[in-house]
Amino acid sequence: MMPAKARPSAVERFLHDDIAQRLSGIGLQLELLRMDLENRLPEAASRALALQRGLDEVLDTVRKFLSQAGALSSDGGGKGVKRPT
Questions:
Q1: C-alpha 52: how far from its chain's center?
Q2: Which of 8, 16, 48, 58 is 20–30 Å from 27 (CA)?
Q3: Nearest-angstrom CA–CA distance, 4 and 47
Q4: Residues 44, 75: contact at Cβ < 8 Å?
Q5: Which of 83, 32, 76 lies closest to 55 in space, CA to CA?
Q6: Residue 16 to residues 5, 78, 82: CA-CA distances in angstroms?
Q7: Is 42:34 a contact under the CB 8 Å cutoff?
Q8: Do residues 13 and 71 lie in contact, with contact meaning Cβ atoms separated by under 8 Å?
């Protein structure tokens, strides 16, 4: 059994197991939407990309919090999809 300080809190588990995973899933769906729109509606694809970047910022904030709290492994807990620049 792990010492109490080594165990992630309920909030850390919730942020990692639920919120971060759901946001990652939304990001993947946005990526698919952006790819579908790229040739037909480039302006809409650009807006989808902007949404992805904002979502990535939120995920980075959550991951930094979890990393500082010690809830993620040393690999950073996985990264999202690499966005086009």
A1: 10
A2: 8
A3: 44
A4: no
A5: 83
A6: 17, 11, 20
A7: no
A8: yes
